[in-house]
Structures are given as structure tokens and as C-alpha cells.
Amino acid sequence: MQQFNEDVLKQLIDELSLNQDIKITEIPDIDLYMEQLTSFMDSSLKSQKRDDQDKILTKTMINNYTKAGLLMPPIKKKYNKRHIILLNLIYYLKNILSINDIKRLFEPVLNNIATPEDDLISLEDIYSTFLDVKNIELSSFHEHLIEKSTMIKEETSMIDKDGKDTAELFLIVIMLIAQANAQKRLAEKIIDTYFHKPENPA
Prior knowledge:
Elements: H1 6-15, E1 32-33, H2 34-44, H3 59-67, E2 78-79, H4 81-93, H5 99-110, H6 123-155, H7 161-194
Antiparallel strand pairs: 1-2
């Protein structure tokens, strides 16, 4: 196994390509058929795949999002810029939140998802802000991870050299999971507290 150190950690982070996103300016101005849409998403976000066989977006996923009310139906079998922005947001959010939670999050902000006129914040502004915030977080991600890995190195300093790297990597994974879980729980708590399910009319 390659010796684990700060350079290796930085290389692993770089290989994730976390800052490779679909920019607003990269979204086609022309409407796309289903096959064109899935191809565009797959080629644009291929760096996000864990495995080459993974699918970024499938016809079934799109149909399920539409049935769930997260995505408006296509217009004459074509998907426009608004569809693509929503699918990008859903792609990132679904890794953390349930489909039901994403719907609860969207409803008071986008109101009638099929029309932009009643959006509390324009969908393009939401997406642009999301990318800005994401890149700010990523800019400090490596630095914070190095600080935590230094602490972990101190905790494992007494371990035999042969097992030290494995112990460090194990603890880094545990630390990342603990951090991700805390952030996920807080996001869910905010949704549960402030994004109530709409009540059924009596």
C-alpha cells in the first residue's frame, strides 16, 4: 500500500473532481429530447461517478422525479434549461436527502414548479448560489482535513509502523462519516422544523 501522507490525501481529494460542475453557461439553449438529456448529464458529470458503470441519470429516474412532483413534465417530449437546472440540483441533493425531503424543500421556494413566475428565488439564482457556496466549502475542505488528519496522526503515533497507515485511514473515514452524518441530521432537522408538509384540506 502506498504510504499515506498529506500529499496522498491532497491527491485523493483532487481525484474526486469536486469542483467540476455544470455551469449555467454550459447548459444548452436548445431543448433536449430524453436521450439527449441523459447523454448531456452523463458526459458533463462523468467525473462524479464512483464507478465507470454508474449512471448519472436514467429515463426511469427522470420519470420518477416527474411523478413525485420534483420535475415538471417535458414540453412536447423536450426538456428545457429549467428542467436541466432542477435535475442538477436533484442529483446533488438526493445523495443526502430523501425525495420527499427534496420536495418539501422546493415547494415553498419554487411554488408551482412548472412556472418561474411564482418562484421565491429564481431557479437560476438558486443554482448559481449553490455552486458558489459549494466552491467556497471546497476551498477550505483540504485545509480542514489536513488539520484533522494531523490530530489523527498524533492519536496513532504509538501504533506499529506496519499498521499505522491503515489505522490513520480508518480513523479518517470514521471522522468523515461522523461529520457527514451531523450535517445530514442538521439539514433534516431544518426541513422538519421549517419546511412543513402541506396539510390536506378538510
